[in-house]
Amino acid sequence: MGIGRKEKQLLDDIVVSENAADRELKEAQARKANAEADLLDLEYALIARATQLSLDSDEYCEYHFAGDVDHDSVTDCLAQLKYWDRQAPECPFNIELTSQGGSVWDGCRLFDYLVDWSIRGGGSHEITIRVRGIAASMASVLLQAADHRVMGRGSVLMIHESAMNPGFGRKSALEDALRALEVEERFSDPIFAERAGLSVEEFRELYRRRDLWLTPDEALTIGFIDRIG
Description:
Layout: H1 5-55, E1 62-66, H2 71-87, E2 93-99, H3 104-117, E3 127-136, H4 138-143, E4 148-151, E5 156-159, H5 171-196, H6 200-207, E6 212-214, H7 216-222, E7 227-228
Parallel strand pairs: 1-2, 2-3, 3-4, 3-5, 4-7
Antiparallel strand pairs: 5-6
Helix pairs in contact: 2-3, 5-6
């Protein structure tokens, strides 16, 4: 027994209705996906704007460098400063420094970046380094990279001759080590001398054959810091 004309028309209408419903469902799903994408874009924009507003404040671009100057500490510090440099190219960098020193060569890496970023080095970031507690050895060199060098009232600064670990078995190894120490001093001594307005020889006379421990007032008088605070 065949399907009558009315029944066939009814089935056709049902198919058409189902197809229309499918299209409407797909269109609704597409609109929902587009709305969710727009909302996600808006959230990202709001996050980026909030980050930018935070970066515009001096307080946000503050880094606490505490501990030894070594590969890990320098890498961590540079990662944060590079991020701020990308996000806010003119954000002032405020670094609180508490360190007894460490690796000269890792310190040189950080020093070069700080000078390049600083206003006095031709960069766009006004850099303030504030000593809290102690800045000794390589840390005292890092202090000299800043536009503004500050020591807290209860802080000390220590500068000394380049040193090496004992245990060199061969004469040639000792000669190589002495050569490395000379290179270190040719790097650091002119930095201190230039910032303090001294000749290199005048600076070397300050620390030769001894560790030079300085109070904030003494460091300010010589010219190794700009202010106490």
